[in-house]
Task: inverse folding
């Protein structure tokens, strides 16, 4: 048995006990350590030299990668944070360093296997709901539902804490990005029809307010060719009688009052209606 190859195939970090159960002898593990094919993480864990630093760190500290850190690793839409990894730990676990990581001590809704170094997506979403502001958490949950990382009916059957249950009750699958998740709840007070991802003039638009007011939301990467296509589509929409308001990432997150003011004034002028 090639013990280093086995560890590499199983995520790059492994418990010694699990490695032994798979058939590796103590002698083979010791030899792999001596020649540098395996590295001791702690007394009970080993890793290959090229292992993911986050995984090795989680094994060293007896935690799992979770919350927004694991959400990002899963490809979900996550609001930028302070750069510290978020990890999950048992409520009764020993002390974990808090200066270099955000440690969430809680009882997981899905039990964690002793070999696990990352949380299941259900636990990740619960911690996101506990850790983040409501809108930021909702964006992550909607991203997970849209990408089918978890099914809504599965989440419904879990024993979710109140904050997670509230996020689930509000979550939908229609937003194409987290920024759209922020916008729609903020505009519901207008009591107008709000339709996401409507196909008009050969492209999808982010949000149609009423019948004719289009809100387009640019992410951080709307540059170059993407920007040129957006401008051309805006022109096509206006020729069809639509009114286009285009806003960016920073405006949604930091200058919402000014965005809302523009939309309110457009509605006041009837630009959301067919004339």
Result:
């Amino acid at each position: 048995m090639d013990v280093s190859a086995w560890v590499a195939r199983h995520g790059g970090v492994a418990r010694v006990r699990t490695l032994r159960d798979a058939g590796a002898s103590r002698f083979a593990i010791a030899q792999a350590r001596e020649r540098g094919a395996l590295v001791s993480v702690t007394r009970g864990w080993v890793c290959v030299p090229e292992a993911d630093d986050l995984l090795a760190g989680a094994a060293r500290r007896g935690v799992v990668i979770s919350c927004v850190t694991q959400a990002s690793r899963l490809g979900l839409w996550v609001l930028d944070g302070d750069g510290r990894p978020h990890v999950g730990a048992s409520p009764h676990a020993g002390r974990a360093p808090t200066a270099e990581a955000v440690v969430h001590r809680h009882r997981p809704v899905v039990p964690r296997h002793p070999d696990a170094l990352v949380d299941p997506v259900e636990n990740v979403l619960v911690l996101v709901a506990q850790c983040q502001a409501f809108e930021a958490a909702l964006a992550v949950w909607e991203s997970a539902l849209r990408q089918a990382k978890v099914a809504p009916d599965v989440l419904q059957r879990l024993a979710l804490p109140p904050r997670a249950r509230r996020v689930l009750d509000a979550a939908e699958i229609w937003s194409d990005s987290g920024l759209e998740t922020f916008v729609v709840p903020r505009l519901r007070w207008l009591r107008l029809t709000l339709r996401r991802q409507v196909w008009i003039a050969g492209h999808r638009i982010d949000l149609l307010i009423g019948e004719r007011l289009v809100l387009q939301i640019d992410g951080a990467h709307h540059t170059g060719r993407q920007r040129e296509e957006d401008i051309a589509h805006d022109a096509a929409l206006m020729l069809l009688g639509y009114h286009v308001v285009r806003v960016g990432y920073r405006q949604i997150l930091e200058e919402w009052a000014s965005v809302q003011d523009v939309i309110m004034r457009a509605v006041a002028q009837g630009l959301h209606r067919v004339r």
About this structure: The chain has three domains: 3-51, 61-170, 178-268. Residues 97 and 103 are 8 Å apart (CA to CA). The mean pLDDT is 91.
